[in-house]
Amino acid sequence: MSSHSPHPPHSPRQLAFIGLRDVHKGAYVDIALDRVLQKVSLPDHDRRLVTELVYGCARRQRTLDFLIDQLGKKKSHQQPKDLRTILHLGLYQLRYQERIPDSAAVNTTVQLAKENGFSGLTGFVNGLLRQYIRLVGGEDGSTSEFPPTLKLPENPVERLGILYSFPDWMIQVWIDQLGFAQTEELCQWMNKTPAIDLRVNPLRTSFNEVQATLESAGILSKPIPHLPQALRLIGSSGAIQNLPGFNEGWWTVQDSSAQLVGHLLDPQKGEVVIDACAAPGGKTTHIAELMGDKGKIWACDSIAHRLNKLKENIQRLKLQSIEICIGDSRNLPQFKNSGDRVLLDAPCSGLGTLHRHADARWRQTPETVQELSVLQKELLSHTSTFVKDGGVLVYATCTLHPKENEDVVSSFLAEHPNWVLEPPSFDSPAGKYSTTQGWIKVYPHQYDMDGFFMARLRKIR
Ligand SMILES: C[S@@+](CC[C@H](N)C(=O)[O-])C[C@H]1O[C@@H](n2cnc3c(N)ncnc32)[C@H](O)[C@@H]1O
Fold it and tell me: Are 285 and 261 in contact (CB under 8 A)?
């Protein structure tokens, strides 16, 4: 084969541009990325660059638009759509990618403009990017403010929204709960690369054995305080399925705060547990492990294909106690009064896991939150009928919006006098994270784990 291919391979930046163009037309960012990466065979470092550019530009789009607004004569939304995407790519590299020299960021962006129908505007692209370098220099944009020449609004909500690239309404929801300084810490946390935590399966191995085996494969890890099965990977690990112990069912990928939910439920051997929103099943398999795989767990979900992952994990972890049930948990009369414990890990706006989904912050709105809170209340009201007298229900979400958390639980308790909020005992893993109100609210910047809310409710008669 000739070494001079007539069709040079796509450059990573061109691929990122194609992916982002899809995102701006409404595609989910991971689907758009998969689509471009599937078409080509790229060396690992180029794949990583495409991935970083697509996720990064999607995540930081509000900040990048602000820079275009400040540096160009026309506002970002007045620019041709594709030109705006190209400018995002250039500015993203200058502001957030320290390893890319400024000259390379500028030249490749100018080239992108040339190749995608903007030959007449290469001078503008070059000028805008060089203006950024002149004004801001080589600062690391993930932590630094802007120089005063770039005029951020006085309003603190907008300031944080622009600086860290979140919608104003989300910032406001957090400021109301945390104040300004902690909201800024939370924003910074949500823009970091997510950690990967494993949950060791004590039915197949031990914590020490997993840690040692990982170490012999060159992967360092550390325990998480108070969580007996949790192991956090340090540094990059490559494809997770290739790590030792995966095929043997020694561990499952699950964030530490999601592991807390299983401990708060505290299921016991021989019990009947109903997991009302189970797919993809991270918590269902944890419950089985905590019960020594003895008893019965009903794993229900309304979306059948989302349960396939659970089926795979049941096989891989070699569990016997889980039974699958496809259906709407707002209407499953067969479970009335049959559960010793019920888990309702409700569908939510995901405000606690925004670092894992680059475009999630732009997809949720106050209206979607409102709709979700209605669904959550309906689910809680019906699934509470599954619980036997004296039994327990844990309500959990991975969001940080009071309308989906405290409000749902408080209005349930107000309408159901035979239920009480039961705080975890202090010596249990969940007890270490409990709040004075009796529920658990994990703020990610405080505990360095995904944001979560969970409350244990007991049916007293
Ligand atoms: C937060 S996820 C659950 C995550 C899961 N517990 C885990 O740990 O892997 C919420 C789930 O609720 C399901 N769901 C949404 N509405 C539902 C309903 N009305 N009835 C049952 N499941 C529902 C969704 O399909 C989704 O899989």
Answer: no
For residues 141 and 95, the answer to whether their CB atoms sit within 8 Å is yes
φ and ψ of 392, to 5 deg: -125, 145
ipTM, 2 dp: 0.99
Q: What is the DSSP letter of 434?
A: B
Model confidence over 369-379: pLDDT tens digits? Answer: 999 999 999 99
Which residue's alpha carbon is at the smallest distance from atom 12 of ligand 1?
A: 277
Q: CB atoms < 10 A from the CB of 193, how many?
A: 10
Say which residue the tokens 């370098």 belong to: 133
Whole-number Å distance between alpha carbons of 168 and 361: 11
pLDDT digits (tens, 9 = 90+) for 200-258: 999 999 999 999 999 999 999 999 999 999 999 998 777 888 999 999 999 999 999 99
21 Cβ below 6 A of ligand 1: no
C-alpha 354/C-alpha 189 separation (Å) is 10
* pLDDT, tens digit (0-9, with 9 covering 90-100), for 34-78: 999 998 999 989 999 999 999 999 999 999 999 999 999 999 999
- The one catalytic residue in 57, 300, 348, 398 is 398
387-397 and 339-345: which strand pairing? parallel
Q: Looking up tokens 């935590």, which residue turns up?
A: 197
Q: Decide: 418 and 364 in contact? Cβ < 8 Å.
A: no
Q: Is cis: bond before 280, omega within 30 of 0? A: yes
pLDDT per residue as tens digits for the range 81-109: 999 999 999 999 999 999 999 999 999 99
Q: Which two tokens stand for residue 277?
A: 């929103």
Ligand 1 atom at minimal distance to the Cα of residue 379: 19
Query: Residue 374: CB partners within 8 Å, gap ≥ 6?
Result: none
Give bridge partners of residue 198 from the DSSP assignment. 231, 253
Q: How far is the CA of 300 from the centre of ligand 1 (A)?
A: 8
Q: Which residue has the tokens 């569990």?
A: 319
% residues pLDDT > 90 (the chain): 88
Q: Residue 390 to residues 60, 136, 338, 381: CA-CA distances in angstroms?
A: 48, 62, 12, 17
Return the closest-CA partner of residue 274 out of 211, 357, 337.
Answer: 337
Residue among 256, 302, 383 to mutate when testing ligand 1 (max atoms within 8 A of CB):
302
Residue 326 contacts residue 316 (beta carbons within 8 Å): no
